[in-house]
Amino acid sequence: MPSQQLTDLLQTAFDARHPLIERLHSEDTNAYRLFNGSTENCPGLTVDRYGDLLLIQTFHAPLDSHDRVAIERFFADTLPALVAIYNDRSGANSRVANPLPSEVLAEAQKPREFREMGIRYLVQGRHAGQDPWLFLDLRAGRRRVMQEAAGKSLLNLFAYTCGVGIAAAKGGAAHVVNVDFAESSLKIGKDNARLNDLPIRLRFVHSDAFAAMRQLAGIGQPGMVRGKKMPAFPKLEKRAFDLVFLDPPRYAKSPFGVVDIVNDYAALMKPALLCTAEGGTLICCNNAAQISREVWADQLQRCAAKAGRTIREIEWIAPEDDFPSHDGQAPLKIALLRV
Q1: Distance CA 127, CA 113 (A)
Q2: Domains and CATH numbers, the chain
């Protein structure tokens, strides 16, 4: 793409976000998406701000040096003093592929703090994983959890770095349990929690989500399944939660079950629903673009009916304006269910 054309696209995107950025700054947020290429005429390119980090990522093809320099120069003028890091993730499994000069790599690997709604989080431009430590399109979900959490118990499933759990604690939750299979993600979650003056102590459970949900729901998780010994898992007592947040990856497979949000969301939703107290709230996320909101809503309704629970109300939580959508069908769908 000609550099001037790319610069014009960046300017249009920045102008469109100006009111949102002002609002976010006023509530002590300095992390947001500056360019969302899939809906802003440059598919595969994203530019995110996390505090003083400018994270440039490509998912379809690498940037050439002219485009990278054009992006860095544009934001050096519009948002001075940010450290620009470029990650090319256009290869297999979205792994970061491009080498960085040693001095840039040192900056990329430096832990940095940023803020969202007054909550402090850690970020690194490069780390052992591939995704940023906080997904910015889920801000709307964290915002809603803060509004819902006062005095309630929260179960945060597929917690990753525990942003939802920390937001709940900041919002006045009485009890928060974060569940994730990756100990490295939970460690970052613990570090994030320590950065903030939280009124409660969060619980972090290193476990496969299926094993945790089955135990909390009272179904139980056998140690042997079809003659095979299951991997070790923490033992949990049955407990219902006022608020359950379910944010699974697109696909994952373990001895305990298969996560497939396209073909079998019900396999996740049913045990999550059984962990949700009667009269409680289950917030479900689905980031598969090929599943429409209407089709997914029907799946949720049918799953609840089979589980013997009634969805009394369904509310859609849309990503905020730094994630624009041409047709109102954003890839990330967040459904708040009163059950």
Answers
A1: 15
A2: 3-123 (3.30.750.80), 136-338 (3.40.50.150)
